[in-house]
Design a protein that fits this description.
Strand content: 5-15%
Protein name: MarR family transcriptional regulator
Number of strands: 5
Organism: Paenibacillus chitinolyticus
InterPro entries: HTH_MarR-typ, MarR/SlyA-like, WH-like_DNA-bd_sf, WH_DNA-bd_sf
Pfam family, one: MarR
Structural class: mainly alpha
Strand order of the largest sheet: 1-3-2
CATH class of one domain: Mainly Alpha
Oligomer: single chain
CATH topology of one domain: Arc Repressor Mutant, subunit A
Largest sheet: 3 strands, antiparallel
Mean pLDDT: 85
CATH architecture of one domain: Orthogonal Bundle
Radius of gyration: 18 Å
CATH superfamily of one domain: Winged helix-like DNA-binding domain superfamily/Winged helix DNA-binding domain
Helix content: 55-70%
Keywords: DNA-binding
């Protein structure tokens, strides 16, 4: 799992670079495509990033054409971050060869085996979501903060 995870991150970094964005921006665009329109606050909760970092991230994604800001139709005070579907096609094109190779690997397995693999991977998504929640955000007295301010942005 660790080897595969590292290779996934490297692939995503290279894909992001080819699109002229950074890894975090590309994965956030992917989250927005998965979740649909959400507020910046909701995005901060999903990613574990600070609201200030998310604002800068959204600015970069908007400048690159991946998202647009729209007023919430139910509450004019709120802004919704909306993924740009046309740009998602560009991302999809990068992942198409990977999808083809994945299908080729899957052909070696029976439907029952694929069901088992799918169940395992789905459960692992939940494991990673729990683990991500546990490590995201500064914790009190953990040495990550100076002068009461988070230093996480240096690594994002």
């Amino acid at each position: 799992m660790r080897k595969m995870s590292t290779r996934i991150v490297l692939f995503q970094q290279n894909a992001a670079h080819s699109l002229g964005v950074i890894h975090t921006d590309l994965k956030t665009a992917d989250i927005l495509n998965e979740k649909g329109p959400i507020t910046a606050g909701e995005l901060a909760k999903l990613t574990g990033l600070t609201t200030g970092t998310v604002t800068a991230l959204i600015d970069r994604l908007e400048q690159a054409g991946f998202v647009r800001r729209e007023k919430d139709p139910h509450d004019g005070r709120r802004v919704i971050i909306v993924p740009v579907k046309e740009k998602q096609k560009t991302i999809g094109a990068l992942y198409k060869p990977l999808g083809t190779m994945t299908r080729e690997v899957c052909e070696a397995y029976t439907p029952e085996q694929l069901d088992l693999i799918n169940t395992f991977l789905s459960r692992m998504v939940g494991v990673f979501e729990q683990a991500n929640s546990a490590v995201s955000g500064p914790k009190p007295d953990d040495g990550c903060c100076k002068n009461g301010r988070s230093e996480r942005h240096e690594y994002e």
